[in-house]
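stuck on this chain:
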Amino acid sequence: MRWFDSDFDYVQELIDTWNNRRKRVRTAYFILAALLVLAGILTAVFPVSIFAVIQYLTAAAMIVIGIYHFIAYSSMTYYFKDGMLIMSGILNILIGVMLFFMPVALTVQVVTFMLAFLLIFSGAQKISFASRLKYFRIPHTGSLTFSGVLNIILAVIFLLLPFMSALALNYILAAYLIITGAALFVEALGMHKLSM
């Protein structure tokens, strides 16, 4: 455990780290958002004919998002690390692996509920992180809060809808990808240079 040093400015450390990496992270968010929205649209438009291809692309996207959560966690300054990122990364990678290897008939309900719990964890993590940033008077946290609320609303919808067929899973994955892409886009738009 790292001991708290009252003479060290942890908020300034976070701001400096953020400002140094902001452009790269923002560009990566825009690219990932575009890829997720494109994969979601293709999943919705071609549900049967290219299902296998979209399934593999979706699985790869889920694994990439999971890996990104691990990288984001490890690159955060110590006092701003959030363990929910690790849980979210694990769930994303599990869903991606399930989509790669298991037949759809067995995984429809399991993947749907995993997506719902993943969205709940992800939304809670974003809301928690936004409130932590707000506590330290770091501005522009509204888009992060909005993204978290959007994830939780989608999770509730996933839990309430009936999931009986592979086609339903296809549209659920399409909705997940499009909304996740839109949420990343909103977050990227809200990434401003921080100053105290």
